[in-house]
Amino acid sequence: MLVLEASVFVTVLVGFLGTIVKKNLLMKIVTMDVMSTGIVALFVVTATHSGLVTPIARGGVFDAPYADPVPQAVILTAIVIGLSIQTLMLVAAMKLARDNPTLETPEIDQTYL
């Protein structure tokens, strides 16, 4: 389980560093999606620590450690919100692309500031 947690942490870190380092606006949007995917994976890994069994009562008693269903609902909500935010960012990038010949952030800053 330690390798899985480390790979999730590396995914979040790569997305975060890509957001900071990349100058192209579309690459920033992609790296933000990578970071969001890593955070969702972190929730999944955290939720499976208590168990992998679905919490269905058999005679009023749970036989095995079960997975908490609340993080699963949070994950679904996070995926939907992440998709809508990514779509909104891509629409904003399309509007910027109409006005500017480039999507490099330093050149956009010079144009609008």
From TrEMBL:
Transmembrane segments annotated in the record for this chain: 6-22, 34-53, 73-93
Keywords on record: Cell membrane, Membrane, Transmembrane, Transmembrane helix
Keyword Protease annotated: no
Subcellular location(s) per record: Cell membrane
One Pfam family named in its UniProt record: Oxidored_q2
Protein origin, superkingdom: Bacteria
Membrane topology classification: Multi-pass membrane protein
GO terms under cellular component: plasma membrane
InterPro entries, per the entry: CPA3_antiporter_subunitC (IPR050601), NUOK/Mnh_C1-like (IPR039428)
NCBIfam families the record matches: PRK07375.1-5
Family: Belongs to the CPA3 antiporters (TC 2.A.63) subunit C family.
Protein known as: Tll1818 protein
Species the sequence originates in: Thermosynechococcus vestitus (strain NIES-2133 / IAM M-273 / BP-1)
